[in-house]
Every structure is written in structure tokens, then in C-alpha cells.
Amino acid sequence: MASRILATLIEASPLAIVAFDPEGVVTMWNPAAERIFGWSEKEAVGMGLPFVPAEKQEEFRALRQRAMRGEVFTEPELYRRRADGSPIVVSVSTSPLRRPDGTIHGIMSILMDVTERKAAEESRARLSMAVEQAGESIIVTDTSGAIRYVNPAFERITGYDRTEVVGRNPRFLKSGRHDAAFYRNMWETIGRGEVWRGTFFNRRKDGTLYEEDAVISPVRDPSGQVVNYVGVKRDVTDVRRMEERLRQSQKMEAVGRLAGGVAHDFNNLLTAISGYSDLLLHRLPAYSTLRRDVEEIRRAGDRAAGLTRQLLAFSRRQVLQPRILDLNAVVTTMERMLRRLIGEDIELSTDLSPSLGHVKADPGQLEQVIVNLVVNARDAMPDGGRITIGTIDVDLSPSYSNAHPGVRPGPHVLLSVTDTGLGMSDETQAHLFEPFFTTKERGKGTGLGLATVYGIVQQSGGHIRVNSAAGSGATFLIYLPRVETRGDDVPGADRPFLPHPSPGTETVLLVEDEEVVRRLAREILINNGYQVLDAGNGREALLISEAHRGEIHLLLTDVVMPRLGGRELVERIRPLRPDMRILYMSGYTDDAILRHGVLEEEVPFLQKPFTSEALARKVREVLDSP
User: Fold this and answer.
1) d(Cα 348, Cα 339) in Å, to the nearest integer?
2) 17, 222, 395, 474: least CB-packed within 10 angstroms?
């Protein structure tokens, strides 16, 4: 009776029950074994245990030895194979088979297919590992908003340990940048069981703000009931910052192209306005009532030229004349002028490093940077305060360079201008260096001061940063590459006194396609004693040179002209007149001149608009040079 019951249990068991002798030859194989492994009882009985693959035979032998020693044991995961060759994972309970006298004559195993369970466990383990190692912040809350789980990325981004946040509502991350309607919309969306997508401005544990793109989704149980919310959030603070820098540079480039495009014609007009104003002033007697009107025209021309220089400076298209400079000398030379500029209610102090390295920059442009920053600081302190100008050597690390695209690591000189004024909000700082952006009331600022500073610093190979907060003053930090000086370098911002140019008697070949500028330059040169041959383009100049039998001491030529430009004219005329000096002039900006190959040679150059005195001085300088 008992044997029949046992046989029935073995036949009906959902688990595979297999018996085999000490050598592994099958002696019993129930229907569940056939169903799980694929071999029929007829195929399995009398053969070596079929589901043990060749590479697992040594493992199987060790298990048989344990059973033959009388051990009863369970192996939760053994890798075996089915009749079709596919892998299977089984949980095995093994025990010895004994005769009535207690001797062991075989082994019995009860096996359960755990392949799906194992796959599910591995899938969950992979999912858990992915969540734990994800770069995105992952946060799980219950339906009331209480945090149940955060991953390590959340801890890294926010600065909070998970033990500090589990059980709390995520509202502790609020920055105050979003209104109640923003959060109401989010909760209404996920409350309907829908996915919410948006961007948070949140606050880290240390108080700093960060921006993150977020997707918040409902989590449902098998019945479809929402039981949790999961938020996957990506810190985009650096990405947004780089995007803003890109937009800023694109704005600068666009306005720069516009400025560069109009500079040529505008500078020609300004040359004529300023030049003819000078000529009139020289001709009018001191008592003339017309002098005041002409002087107003002259001043308007100067203001227009200054505005053009600012446009070209912030767009990095101004022709620079860099020199090796000692920033301490620049600041010291300017100090008296700056004190007059800021007034008596503002204190000016300096903190200059005594062992400062040198930089290579245009001294006039660098002075403009300092003046603009000091004026900006002055305007931020309507009730008085203190401005401090500092210098120090710094070494920028590769990590700093990586965090500030376009900045090269290595030795730099830092120029800082600090004020105790009103400070600036994050919003103001985001637009600070944009052209025409100003916080001053209408008529009090052009919005070009800091844009000009930005352009000059960029064109000089440096970069600028600002540290500020509303009500806490501001510090502008300018980093310029440090350079090695040679024995013949003369650091400093001092420029030699230039006496009024003496008149000349030499012959000058003047080549200028803009007639009004050509007439003006001709008149200036004649008034200074020179013999002038003038041409409207390069080909005409070649014909004049061939026809002129005497010596031509100087070729004064525009760079960009139709038919034959200045560079090509020089190449054609130089073999014919090897002793002739060359002086280029142009109203174009430096990139256009570089494309014509002029600044690649270290030849004399005169930037338009120029004054009568500047032209006369430059001509005399070139003629008298060795």
C-alpha cells in the first residue's frame, strides 16, 4: 500500500525526481523530469544522467561523492541542459538511497526549474545596479510625496546623504525660482497618472543653485493603482552654462560681423570729417566765430570714432599693437587719473604683487579695460565706497580649463577690480557682457562698456569672470597669459613723448580709392611740404610710377581696393623701386587686413580714421626709420 502511494506521489509530482547509481546511471525518471528536461523515461533510464553537460561532469562527480558519504544537501543553483541543448538552471535537493541494512546503493535528486526565477533575479540585480550607478539622479516617493529611495547620483548632485532625505518631502530642495502654479501643475499632472516633464531650479545642501531636467512618472501595481512616483533628473547646470556662452559668443560674432562690415565705409567718412575739420581749424583765425562750430564738428567726429572703436573692440576686430607690459606699471601710471575719475566719496586702493609676471597686450586697450571697469564700479556705488585694483600671478589648472571652455591652462597674470557697491543678481550677470545691455537709466549708459572689456580681453588671449551677488559688491577677474620677457623688452605702459612732426620734402605716391579721403590725405601731405602723386587704384598707381622719372620715397596705399589691392601693388612695384618705403592704411578691421596678408608682414600701418597730425607723424616716422 505504502509503495503504491509513494509511486503515485512520484508520478504526480510537479518536481523532477531522478534516481541514479553511484556512477551516475539513471535508475528512475519521473514524468516531471521528462517534461522539464525533454528526455523520455525510456531514453533516460539506463544511461548516464543526460542533463549534466560535459563541462559540469567534474562538479557532478563531486556531488555524487558527497551523497555516497551519506550527506543530504541542497544546491540552489546548478546549470544543466535540456534535450534540445538549451541551458536550464535547477535547484537540487539530493539525498543517498539506503538498503535495509543501511548501506548506500544509489542517489536521489529532486529538481525544480528556477531558470525564470534566476533570470528575473538577474534582471532585478542589473536594474538595481543600473539605478545605483546611473549618472542621472533617481528619486522614488510615495503618493503623498515622501521620499522612499534616492540613488548615489542624487547624493552627489544635491550634497544630501540618503539618510537625511528618506521620509522627507522633496520641497527642501526648492530654490524659490518657481511659483506655486509651477508645482501645482506638476502635481496635477502626475496625480492624473500622466508623465510630467520639466526643468527645476533647485538648491543644493551648500546653498548653491543647480538646474535639472526632470521626468516624473507614476508607478502602478498589478491592479493598475498608482503606488509610487519615480523622478529621473539630469543635472544640466554646466550644459546650460556652455549653451549660454555659445549664445553669447554668437551674439558677439553677429554684431561683430555687422561692425566689421560697416567699419570700412564709416571710418572713411570719419577720416574725412575729422581731417577736414582739422584743416579748417588751422585756416580759421583765432577770433573767427566759425571756430566753435568747426570744433563741435570735430568733437562729434571724435565721439563717433570712439564709438566705432568700442564696437570693434567688443567684437574683437580692432587692430591691436601689443607690447610686453608690466600690469603694475600700467595701474600705477593710471592711478592719479583714476582718482580724479571716481570722485572724492570713493576710496581707491591697490594691492599689487611685487613679483608680477608680464603680459603681452595693447597698452591703450588695457588702459581702456581698467577705465571701463573702474567707471562701472563707481556707478555701482552712488553713496560712496571702495574700489580695489589687484594683481597677482596665478596658474590655471587643466580642471579649471575644462570647466571654462576656451581657457588655456598654465601661467597667467590676474588683474582684479573689486567694489563694495550694489552687486548684481544672477539674471544681470547672465547678460552682463552683451552689447547694449545696461542697468542704468535711459541716457546714462550705452551698454558697450563691459562688452568692450569682454572683447579686448578675449582678443588679447585672456578671459574674464565676475563674482557678485545682489547687495554684496562685485569683483571682475581678468586672466591674461603670462609671457617671458627678453633683455630688450621694456615693460610698462609709458609711451614716449611725440613731438609735432617736422615738414618734409620727399615725394609720396598716394593710392586711395575713396576720393574724399584721397583729396584729404593729399592736402595734408602737401601742407606738410611733401610732393604728392595720387592714384585712385593700384593699376593707376603702377602707371604713375612708370611715368615718373624721379625718386618716389614713400608709397602710402590703402589695403583693400578694387582691381588691384595694396598688397598686390607692393609686390608689383617693389622690384621697380626697391628703396621706396611702404605705409599701409585701412578702414577695415584686422581680420580683413589679415586676409590680404598685410599684418603678416611687420610693415607700418595706419588705422582709419586718422587725424591730420597722425598721418603727418606716421609718414615722417616711416621716412626717418632705418
Assistant:
1) 7
2) 222
Q: What's the DSSP call for residue 142?
A: E
Residue 172 has what DSSP assignment? G
How far separated are the first and last CA of the chain, in Å rounded? 129
Indicate if the pLDDT at residue 455 is higher than 80.
no
Residues 6+ apart with CB under 8 A from 334: 367, 370, 371, 493
CB 147 within 8 A of CB 233: no
User: d(Cα 509, Cα 439) in Å, to the nearest integer?
Assistant: 51
- Find where cell 505504502 sits: 2
Q: What is the pLDDT of residue 39?
A: 92
Q: Which residues contact 582 (CB under 8 A, 6 or more apart)?
A: 554, 555, 557, 570, 574, 603, 604, 622
Q: What domains, with CATH codes, occur in the chain?
A: 2-118 (3.30.450.20), 134-235 (3.30.450.20), 244-305 (1.10.287.130), 323-483 (3.30.565.10), 507-624 (3.40.50.2300)
Cα angle: 188, vertex 193, 195; to 5 degrees: 80
| Bond preceding residue 609 cis, omega within 30 of 0 | yes
More confident residue, 12 or 103: 103
Judged by DSSP in three states, 205 sits in coil
d(Cα 353, Cα 332) in Å, to the nearest integer? Answer: 12
The overall longest dimension of the chain from CA atoms, in Å, is 145
Residue type, 310: Q
**pLDDT for position 222:** 86
Closest to 589 (Cα-Cα) out of 361, 304, 317: 317
Rounded Cα–Cα distance for residues 352 and 392 (Å): 7
Burial class (CB in 10 A: 0-12, 13-18, 19+), 217: middle
Using an 8 Å Cβ cutoff, are 468 and 426 in contact?
A: no
φ and ψ of 545, to 5 deg = -60, -40
Q: Are 544 and 511 in contact (CB under 8 A)?
A: no
Distance from CA of residue 548 to its chain's centroid? 58
List of residues 6+ apart from 621 with CB closer than 8 A: 501, 604
- Please give the pLDDT value at position 241: 78
Q: Which residues contact 283 (CB under 8 A, 6 or more apart)?
A: none
More confident residue, 427 or 335: 335
All three cell numbers of 278, joined, read: 582739422
**Spatial distance between the Cα atoms of 516 and 275, rounded to a whole number of angstroms:** 10
With residues binned 3-state (H G I as helix, E B as strand, rest as coil), the percentages for the chain, rounded to 5, are: 40, 25, 35
Cβ–Cβ < 8 Å for 240, 211: yes
> Torsions phi, psi of 416, nearest 5?
-120, 145
Crossing angle of helices 237-283 and 515-527, rounded to 10°: 50
CB-based contact 553:582 (threshold 8 Å): no
**pLDDT higher than threshold 60 for residue 402:** yes
Whether 500 and 613 have beta carbons less than 8 Å apart is answered as yes
Q: What pLDDT digit, counting tens, does each position of 346-392 carry?
A: 888 888 988 889 998 878 778 888 888 888 888 888 888 889 999 99
Which residue type sits at 543?
A: L
